[in-house]
Design a protein that fits this description.
InterPro entries: Gal_Oxase/kelch_b-propeller, Kelch-BTB_domain-containing, Kelch-typ_b-propeller, Kelch_1. The protein is mainly beta and 244 residues long. The protein has no helices and 26 strands. The protein has strands spanning 9-13, 16-20, 23-24, 29-30, 34-38, 43-47, 58-62, 65-69, 77-81, 86-90, 100-106, 109-115, 121-127, 132-139, 147-151, 154-158, 163-167, 172-176, 187-191, 194-198, 201-202, 205-206, 209-214, 219-225, 236-238, 241-243. The strands form 8 sheets. Strands 1-2-5-6 form a 4-stranded antiparallel sheet, with no helix packed on it. Strands 7-8-9-10 form a 4-stranded antiparallel sheet, with no helix packed on it. The protein has a 4-stranded antiparallel sheet with strand order 11-12-13-14, with no helix packed on it.
């Protein structure tokens, strides 16, 4: 990348990886800079910076826009238009500044889990067409480091020692099997009908194993390992390949 960063977020849109914000340990500073990666020419390019500094935030794409949601010590939400290379503002997340945020797209809505500094985290739904937030059921015992992904009509909350899923049609959280290896600060993505967990940290040591959760079988499997030490980062899927 063009800039050192951690605690950033990444997503894919139209075959391009967008990586935004984060924290620069060298300068001890939050970032609003952004970059995009084109797998065809294998180059990172700087794009317009966000309006707000943010890290530990949620990110997803919808209708040719990229949305950055919340993050540490902020309630702001903004969207990026790649066609114009410009950012626009969206309504803030409810209930004030967050501590840690994750977001995912399901149908025509953006769903977000927001931790406000205590262990409970409300689930929020943002409708980009209405530009309005709605509150859903809360999940409890939610330390930072979790990931949120979606498939079909279900949200999946993945954390080191507890995993849950929420069918948005009935708005009820249910327990699901935990990963084989407890880890924090990993990345999680959906590919086909599987959830993949990559990297992370356990007992102060990097975890290189990759676990796959088969949604149909309700089962975790250790399938591979990655070569790099990966944590506090973002992962996106482009044409079936993981970029992290």
């Amino acid at each position: 990348m063009n800039e050192d960063r951690c605690y950033h977020s990444a997503t894919a849109l139209n075959g391009v990886v967008y990586l935004m914000g984060g924290y620069n340990d060298n300068n001890d500073s939050r970032l609003r800079t952004t970059e995009c990666y084109n797998p065809v020419n294998k180059r990172w390019n700087r794009i317009a910076p966000m309006n707000n500094l943010r890290y530990n935030f949620g990110i997803c794409s919808y209708n040719d826009f990229v949305y950055a949601v919340g993050g540490y010590d902020t309630s702001t939400v903004e969207c990026y238009n790649p066609a114009t290379d410009k950012w626009g503002s969206c309504p803030n997340i409810p209930n004030g500044s967050s501590y840690y945020t994750r977001a995912t797209l399901l149908g025509n809505s953006i769903y977000s889990l927001v931790r406000y500094g205590h262990n409970s985290a409300p689930c929020l739904r943002f409708d980009p067409r209405e530009q309005r937030w709605y509150e859903m059921n809360m999940t409890r015992d939610t330390p930072d480091g979790f990931e949120l992904v979606s498939y079909d009509r279900t949200l999946f909350y993945i954390n080191d020692d507890s995993c849950k899923r929420l069918d948005v049609r009935v708005n009820t959280w249910e327990s699901m099997p935990s990963m084989h290896i407890k880890r924090k600060y990993f990345s999680a993505v959906i590919a086909a009908d599987n959830i993949y967990v990559l990297g992370g940290l356990r007992d102060g040591k990097y975890v290189k194993s990759v676990e796959r959760y088969n949604i149909s079988n309700n089962e975790w499997t250790i399938i591979d390992s990655i070569e790099i030490e990966h944590l506090y980062g973002g992962t996106a899927v482009v044409d079936g390949d993981f970029k992290f």
